[in-house]
Amino acid sequence: MTARPEPGRQERLLAALAERDLGALVVTDLANVRYLTGYVGSNAIALVGAGGRRLVTDSRYALSAREQVAAEVVVGRRDLLADVASALPEVAAGGRIGVEAENLTLARHDRLAGILDGLEVEPTRGLVEALRLVKDPEEVAAMREAADVASRALERVLGEGIVGRSERQVAFALHGAMLDGGAEEPSFPIIVAAGPGGARPHAVPGPDPIPPGTLVVIDLGAVVRGYCSDMTRTVATGPLPGRLEEAYRVCLDAQEAALAAARPGMGAAELDAVARERIAAAGYGEAFGHGLGHGVGLRIHERPGVRPESTETLPAGAAITIEPGIYLEGEGGVRIEDLVVLAEGGPDVLTPFPKDLRVVD
């Protein structure tokens, strides 16, 4: 569990609300609730406004919420909306009320607006997510630990050998090794994709034995104190066909070029282009279809997106992945991914696992 978050997060949100002439925000996205209050559970709504802060939850979480939360805890009925509506006039201090349009369903929005009986409700987008974009030292420390847990798990499982084991068995072993190493859970379903399956960026581990003489794409991450890590390494199971060897070299060159170029203030699309142009120049441009990376934090995919179409500028303190890939249908694939935090002197690479092509039995 996370410690209670520093109160500056709520203060920064209040400043953002004042800029938009909003008296309060109804925070329904649970990652945003946790970021602002420290709440860890499945049913809560945070209210942050000029007239106070409330965390509305139900009786199942009453004790834990009071231990976790940097706000007054209101224990209500399981549905929560009526209790939220009762608290909002005081929290908003007569001002307009913002709701999270990307999380609150139309049905719940309409119901809340009806219960509020005339108070103005305004959809908002990305207010808390904009605060979460820049990570504080406590967040970075949790993500670094999560990256270490995943790296140690991969080292352990590769050391046990993977040839002849099924993709599912290797994925299950990685899951267990991360839990043994201190993870709360994997940050996403683990990908283990051997041979032609590696040409599918989001392959699902299958039952067939991993053969010798091919590439195996392994994508895994851990959750520590609520924060995610994300790492991909591609390993060989013996001597490779020349095209797969070349694809690995090209992908590694593109990944390291993007790492060297990554700086705060550059456009996300600009960083994507550094790796994409290297891969295209080597003749594999059509084989790299996804974006270079994405933000990571309380969720495995969050802002900023590092893609060709992105219009975002990358700020200092943003945690992003740098993960180019080359996917050759019918042959195999390679992806190499690090998790980094952007800084003026160059990225702080949280992923400790080596990237030279490793041959495993």
Number of strands: 19
- Adjacency order of strands in the biggest sheet: 4-3-2-1-5-6
Strand content: 15-25%
User: How many H/I helices?
Assistant: 10
Computed over alpha carbons, the radius of gyration is 23 Å
Helix content: 25-40%
> What is the H/E string?
HEHEEHEHEHEHHHEEEEEEHHEEEEEEE
Calculate the terminal CA-CA distance, rounded to whole Å: 38 Å
Biggest sheet, open or closed, and with what strands and sense? 6 strands, mixed
Which blocks of ≥5 consecutive residues have pLDDT under 50? none
Q: Tell me, what's the shape?
A: elongated
Can you tell me about this structure?
Helix content is 35%, strand content 22%. It has 361 residues and is of the alpha+beta class. The chain has helices at 8-19, 30-37, 62-68, 81-92, 106-116, 127-132, 137-159, 167-180, 242-261, 268-281, and strands spanning 24-27, 44-49, 52-58, 72-76, 97-100, 121-124, 185-186, 191-194, 215-220, 222-224, 227-228, 231-236, 293-295, 302-306, 319-322, 325-328, 332-335, 338-341, 348-349. The chain starts with 7 loop residues before the first helix and ends in a 12-residue tail after the last strand. The strands form 6 sheets. A 6-stranded mixed β-sheet has the order 4-3-2-1-5-6, sandwiched between helices. The mean pLDDT is 95. The radius of gyration is 23 Å and the shape is elongated.
Give structural attributes.
single chain, 361 residues, alpha+beta, six-stranded mixed sheet, three-stranded antiparallel sheet, 19 strands
